[in-house]
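Feature request, filed as a ticket because there's no other form

It would be nice if the structure record came with a short human-readable summary line next to the tokens. Right now we just get the raw output. Example of a typical job, pasted below so the devs can see what we mean:
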Amino acid sequence: MKSDILTIKKFHEGLTNKVFSAREALAEFYKIIDAKDGEIGAYLSTDRDASQTQAEEIDRMVNRGEKLSALAGIPLAIKDNIMVKGQPCTASSKLLEKYKAIYDATVIKKLRSEGSIFIGKTNMDEFAMGSSTETSAFKITKNPRDLTKVPGGSSGGSAAAVAGGMAVAALGSDTGGSIREPADFCGIVGLKPTYGAVSRYGLIPMSSSLDQIGPLTNTVEDAAIVFRAIAGEDPRDSTSASVIYGEELTNPKVEHMREMTIGLPKEYFISGIDKGVQANIAAVIADFKGLRVRFKEISLPHTKYALSTYYIIMAAEASSNLARLEGIRYARVPEAENAVDLMDRYVKNRSHGFGAEVKRRIILGTFVLSSGHYDAYYAKAQKVRALIRRDFDEAFKDVDVILTPVSPTPPFKIGEKMNNPLTMYLSDIFTMTANLAGLPALAMPPNFQLIGKPFHEADILGLGQYFERIRR
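Raw output as currently delivered:
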């Protein structure tokens, strides 16, 4: 971790010690956005009036000597598929171009109660369908580390905002790696929580059994702070779990970390991985061994079926979820104004409102759910998903955490994979299994991922913080 990075803890100390005010900090972040984001393209919109009002209230609390939460005054960027009342929520699609949220997502309500400030909404792959943030209907986001490269997807705007110093932290969503891959490509930290650990209420759904909201941050400790704030049961989300996370998330015990065994799945260390990624993973393993952490080779035998299983289930659920967007209730596209009847309006709205990648997945999803194909594809994929989950259950009998690469390659050039969808889909090959099995997974520099047991975020966050400290 670089010592000059503004972490949540450093921001909190500066704010409470009156080194700066929340208004001054917010103004500085907007100054950075104005200077850099024209080139990077992380944000789709900002809400300067509302964030200014939030900052003024935090400053009044400081002046009154009130105790502030760790997240009070923290400028956050929010992926544009998460509802923030009064702000646009487009999911980077023409079909929702003019839509503004009429309520706060549960995660936003929780962060608002902590005093967090929402700078704006970030660019993403349209309806979270993509691995490069190139399928957005509005702009292409560039990687702040190298403007010729993609930032990853689909939460590329959130990752770019944090990596580019345009937010202290951000929220993204992860369906098959959409938090972890952008974090990896942009050199920051991304956490996909256990399925059900964080409410999905107020998230525009892509694949309801896979989606999960999580943080993108500069450090693992920051990810732990944000996660603890947004986690918890929500009566508006029937899939949310009543799990309470305590201080172990941000205060891991060294002795507990040293008692852990890390599993190395042989199916994830294969030929075809970039040599630089391989070298980084080898160095990470060596560092952990230097800390007396034990390793054990394990097998996850059904990994070879994960890619096809994921794309069948994800596309089927996406097709079902996007059926509600007919271009009548939320937004209309200009090309539909000359429709001759209602059906023609539906067809024109969806034809012109959805981008090519979204159409591709809707078509695939509709096909695998159709009569005559349901049993051959969707039902079979669900059976394989159960086997993948069982592989992890068996592995976790012998190990506490599993270590893998995040992506088989470093960030690729903008435009390099857009004409070859299958190559693009392979970017998620190491991340999607955690979604299929509903497991927590943490991506952090350099290029590695820690996968934990269900609701054992403390294990992966603890190991991550332990590793960060020795790498400083």
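Something like this underneath would help us a lot:
The longest helix spans residues 374-395.
The longest strand covers residues 117-122.
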